[in-house]
Amino acid sequence: MEAKFLASALSFLSIFLAIYAQSLDTLVPNYDNVEHRMKFYDIRGPLVLSCKSESTDPLIWKKNHTNVMNVDVLKGRFKLINDEKKFIIDRAEAHDDGLYSCEINGESRDIHAVARVVVRVPSNTAVVEGEKMSVTCSVLGTAPQLSWTFGNVTLKNNTDRFVLKAENNIENAILTMDNVTLDDRGEYKCIGRNAANDYGNSTVASDFTTVRVKGKFAALWPFLGICAEVLILCLIILIYEKRRNKSELEESDTDPQEQKKKRRNYD
Questions:
Q1: N- to C-terminal Cα distance for the chain?
Q2: What's the sign of the alpha-carbon dihedral 60, 66, 72, 78?
Q3: Do 50 and 85 contact (CB within 8 A), yes or no?
Q4: Residue 258 in 3-state DSSP?
Q5: Among 33, 65, 257, 266, which residue's Cβ finds the most Cβ atoms within 10 Å?
Q6: DSSP for residue 117
């Protein structure tokens, strides 16, 4: 208990000292997390960085220690508002994260731009009983951490049936399951988080897929149904043809007698 209290006190003290030191600075960035010098943003939303300063001189903005004017992926995508000491990307992408800095009169402040996580999985996943299931969680964001749940259960890697694999250097991006049973039907949720969740109030990203398990003979029933319909149709045609032939035969038997009667009446 004392160790937890001491850790909380030290964390609070470090944050307080960081805020206090920031208040004495002549160059103050708009951090979302002061302690870790972070600014969070939504992918395809605006990224707005600012550094308050008493100086009237324009700021020099850099990304990864290179002037933003010379960064190819930023050309034509950002604007500088010198009066407000702001650097703005109206439609920021995941690759716009990284280390930024504002400089003026020999002073510099770092800002770590962190893209919030976005995850996507297929809305529905169909699999046949006894076969293997594989679901990929597509993710964007800065250093994402992925996990999976089924109902209220968090799925662990290398269990009897569940295996979580990496894709594009992102751990747990692919969920696979061998020998699927009908009990495996339901909602599987991919959950993504990063520093924006650990050091900010960002909502944890999640998306779910509904797994539908078909029986082994599910595809056979429609075929059997069609066969039954064809058989019934053939029986109906056969019965109809038999009755028609019988009636024609009876008519042919009665025709000569009727013709004899007509001749007698004529005579």
A1: 131
A2: negative
A3: yes
A4: helix
A5: 33
A6: P
Q: How would you class 188 by CB atoms within 10 Å of its CB: exposed for 0-12, middle for 13-18, buried for 19 or more?
A: buried
Give Cα 233 distance to the centre of its chain.
Answer: 48
How many degrees, rounded to 5, is the angle at CA 241 between CA 237 and CA 242? Answer: 120
Tens place of pLDDT per residue across the chain (267 aa): 555 544 555 454 454 444 444 444 579 999 999 999 999 999 999 999 999 998 889 999 999 999 999 999 999 999 999 999 999 999 999 999 999 999 998 899 999 999 999 999 999 999 999 999 999 999 999 999 999 999 899 998 766 778 999 999 999 999 999 899 999 999 999 999 999 999 999 999 999 999 999 877 555 656 667 777 777 877 788 777 777 766 666 666 555 555 555 555 555
The SS3 call for residue 95 is: helix
> What is the pTM assigned to this prediction?
0.72
Residues in a beta bridge with 101: 62, 110
Are 89 and 96 spatial neighbours (Cβ–Cβ below 8 Å)? yes
d(Cα 243, Cα 248) in Å, to the nearest integer? 9
Amino acid letter at 209? T
